[in-house]
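FW: tagging you since you asked about this chain on Friday. Here's the raw sequence from the shared folder, copied in full. Didn't touch anything.
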Amino acid sequence: MSTEISSIGETCLRISLARTLAQASAAIAAAALAADVLVVFASVIWRYLLHDPLEWAEEVARALMVTLVFCGAATATARGRHVGVDLLQNRLPRHVRAALAAGIRWVLVAVAVGLLWSSLSLLAESFAQTTPTGLPQAIYVAPVVFGAGIMSIGALEHAVEGPARSVVGSGLAVLAFLLGLLAMPHLFVDFRPPSGALMIGLFALGILAGVPIAFTLGFSALVFFITEPSLPFLFFAQQAAAGVDHFVLLAIPFFLLAGAAMEANGMSTRLVELIVRGMGRFRGGMNLTIVLAMAFFSGISGSKLADVAAVGGVLMPAVRRAKQNPADAAGLLATSAVMAETIPPCVNMIIMGFVANISIGALFLAGIVPAAILAGALCIIGVIYGGRINVAEAYPVLTPARQLAIGAAVGLVMVLMIGKGVVSGIATSTEISAFAVVYALVVGWITFRELTWRAVVKLFIDTATLSGMLLFIIAAATSVSFALTIEMIPQRLADLLISVGQTQGAWLFMALSIVLLVVFGAVLEGAPALIIFGPILVPIAQRLGFDPLHYGSVLIIAMGLGLFAPPMGLGLYTTCVVCGVSMSDVVRPMRKYLLALAVALAVVAALPMITLWLPRAMGY
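HL: got it, structure written out here
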């Protein structure tokens, strides 16, 4: 009996500690996000209205960004929120599956502890350094240490859950593997481990095993830095922090926050109902609603997974009430997310512009016409295979038309504000996104009166956690990208692709690029694929005569196609969960929409004028 009581007490203590750590890191990440919005917003006011720039603002904003990322990622780890692609686990025997799941949890521990160890070394080096404005360099490193510490404890608590045999056995296996790598240089003086091959092999194995994407990248990079004797281990944390220490990347959490604020204000519900009531009397009205709603929300939030959650969560009950096929609607919702990949302010467009040194404003403009073509293709198929709906069945209780019109107007003003800021060039995408956040919170609250203080706090916590999950993937991918550069793999790949383009034709290179991004977009959740391949492929495309705006837009669409296509697309898994349908039911009705997207993508790739016309007309 005493043993049972002790076990129960230890479990309660462990759960309480995990919950406390998750709450603490979530609160810090949310506070960092709120402070970042205020700093950037104040910086814009001081610069453009008072003509007195705040010299320290960008450095403080970047330090807050690092805090947001690593504390948000720690929160996601403690709550078990990081996601991977399950390719093997369901096909394995139960006992093997249990051991593999336990091993995956120990991989998370290894990455978190490795990051903590590396960041402590980096912190010691940073105390003697200052930023250009005189701030201590440690402001960029201390958040990594803090976040990695909480991440380590949270990952460890998850790792010890499950059958004792699987937990101990898999833990010892991971530990023995890492200790063996550390001991190898001392046991075999003349033997140098193949760091690059190990990294690539572990990356492939991690993807197949279902290790969360960020930790697949992190574990691969961790092993590289352990086995590469020419590099100090602190480079692991240094590259991870450097990957998100960029002012331009602040636009990602800001646009996510603006979109979430508009959803919390009830604008998404009003807008979707307005579109259903307007389109419902036409053939394929529900399908048209899905495409139009995704296009509209993509101009606000920037995250396709967030758009799917917002539109799907609101629309699917109406789909079922109207007696429409929910599997078909889910397939169209997923393909509409692909269409919306090039509608500004898409997160992946910001990442592509950042890693490939392309003007983000010009890239935003370049994506509008391709998105319209993809949307047109989906609408045509939606009308052909769709039918009319009874709006009274979809919405038994109708919202007053005045409220619907106001909701749509508030959202439209926000989209126009973002678009005007991008086109005019009067502010950066980060500054525009900060204004979008303030607008969404202040104007949304004044207009709808649905936001409470508790809802605002939850809004910041949820957005900070989601941002941490997304941007931690970028941090880990940056470490892998650095390791690939050290191994000269990008240069070798570039030489091969240039040879293919010069001997077989530039358009074969374009076709291979599309296939490459579709495949890696499926297994890498999009952003890492762009981070790894964008800097490699865009310069080659330029040498072969492709405009970077055109080529970058094609890559983004191809990546989105992989992200939301069966059988591996992580975005499609998310769509099915949001819509409450199984993937096996979605695949068949989704085929017609995927075919329409593939044809439209081929047209966009073959006709550069489609992407280049609008940027050229606007002076880019």
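FW: The CA atoms of residues 63 and 139 lie 6 Å apart.
HL: agreed, and The chain has a mean pLDDT of 83.
FW: great, closing this out.
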